[in-house]
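User: Here's a chain of 203 residues. Predict its fold as tokens.
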Amino acid sequence: MSALIRILLSLAVCAALAAPSARDAALAAPAVAQFKLANGGDLGVQVVGIETTPGVKPLLAPWHVVAGDPRRLAEPGAIVVDRSEYPKLKIDRVGHRAEVSGVRAEVVALTSGIRSFTTSPIVFTDIRTAHSYLPQLGGDAVTYVLVEVADKSQIAAVQARINALPHLAAYTRAEMSNRSRTAMRARSMGFRTISPSKPRSSG
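Assistant: Prediction complete.
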């Protein structure tokens, strides 16, 4: 990650936390990696690296957990996958061991019903483990800054503080969802959406 981007992300976190009712901020880094299958083949997966701290509830975490303990994501190499992806990943139990981009991985929990807009399965992990799976991105790569706002009436104020910074854009959950659906519809119609290359913040 360039020094400029690192500084901008730090400013985004500081600006968010300085805004009225901002409670917490965390980093996230989704990217594509190769999952080693039991038959020796490889499958592209969407790795979602989330910032975790033992004993602290993260702002982003796997939901609809049906087996295992997602709090173990803080452990090195721990991953969470969805059981609906069994036809692709052939994983149906906690404790399954595999490799992602040549690095050890162990399933610590299973979810049900978490599917990607794309055909690539989602793999949740700690952001530090994600960096080990994605060395090409650098050891501190971050795509999103997630911000929690205690007083929902102050979301616009937090958003404005972040948007006032150069090269950053803040979106609410609803806005991000709408952008994702729009991008998916464009791809399904054969169009390609082009977005500015800059870090994003989500409230």
